[in-house]
Amino acid sequence: MKAIIHTDSQIMGGTPVFAGTRVPVATLIDYLEAGDSIEDFLDGFPTVQREQVIALLERVRQQIDEQLLAAA
């Protein structure tokens, strides 16, 4: 599976970015919180692939599900 997130102290000071880009993952969250769509985000950051965004959101959902099950 292709990497989704990359961290490197030499890239954006170690901020988690979408792999192969300099786009912080937090920027996607900011867009979604503001009510923008994934398409809006991708239009603004064409170096990020749709597959990366979907894979990230699926991973987050899986982690939330696992935490909820562990807490039950």
UniProtKB/TrEMBL annotation:
Coiled coil: none annotated. Pfam families: DUF433. InterPro entries: DUF433, Homeodomain-like_sf, WH-like_DNA-bd_sf. This is DUF433 domain-containing protein. It comes from Thiorhodovibrio frisius.
